[in-house]
Amino acid sequence: MTNTVHKICSAVVPDRIPRRDATLISRVCQWCLEKFGWQIEGEMHNSEKLVCTVAPHTSNWDFVLGVFILFALRLKVSFFGKHTLFNSPLGGLFTRLGGIPVERRQAHGMVESIAEAIRKQHKILLVIAPEGTRSPVYPWKKGSVLIAHKADIPLQCVGFDYARKRVLFGPVLLPSDNIDNQMQTLYAFYANVAAKFPEKCLVTEPKA
Predict the structure, then answer these.
(1) pLDDT tens digits along 71-89
(2) How many domains does the chain have?
(3) Considering the chain, what is the average pLDDT of its residues?
(4) Best CA proximity match to 59, nearest among 163, 133, 127
């Protein structure tokens, strides 16, 4: 069965997803994405609370593309970033985009803290890059799956396919104790998503 293909516009976003107000920026971002031929393939899961893994992450252009997409779709997202980013000249921008600074040295208990914060929210769309780096790495971090499990909310795989210029809304994972099996679902999906720099994306264990 072939996934439905849509143009990138806010009309394709389900009604329970956290949204931004319509602005001139959202219309400009939509126009730019259409101009460069980007489309949406698949359907976004309709949930007031949702974790989205977004990958592959091999270039700073992924962030730029992501910003254009979130404004064009009018998505109100939250994401976590290194605390040093928020001390930079762009720190205010990251905060306005939904960024939350984290100290990576304080990883102990972070998953539970994030899950607890999610449980207190009425609506939240949390975006996570599962690789955790732009460099080739395997295995990927399990934090996104663990957070969704602890917070008892669904997780959806989202891919930026540069070869076909598609934003792919992929499989939805419901909370499960079988974290390793869910990670294999992530790998299987992203194995078919073309990164900006494919040589920097690993979804299988590197050969010796």
Answers:
(1) 999 999 887 766 666 666 6
(2) 1
(3) 86
(4) 133
What is the spatial distance between Cα 114 and Cα 157, in angstroms, rounded to a whole number?
Answer: 19
Complete edge-to-edge strand list for the sheet that includes strand 5-7: 5-7, 39-41, 166-173, 155-161, 49-55, 124-128, 78-82, 99-102
CB proximity list for 173: less than 8 A, separation 6 or greater = 145, 148, 154, 155, 156, 157, 182, 185
Asked if residue 203 belongs to a domain, the reply is no
pLDDT for 203 equals 80
Whole-angstrom Cα distance, residue 52 to residue 168?
Answer: 12
Kindly state whether residue 39 falls inside one of the protein's structural domains.
yes
Token readout for 123 is 């609506």
Q: How many residues comprise the chain?
A: 208
Asked, for residue 207, whether it belongs to a domain, the answer is: no
For residue 10, give the DSSP letter.
G
Residue among 124, 144, 123 at smallest CA distance from 57: 144
CA distances (Å), origin 205, targets 64, 137, 191: 29, 9, 12
Residue type for position 182: Q
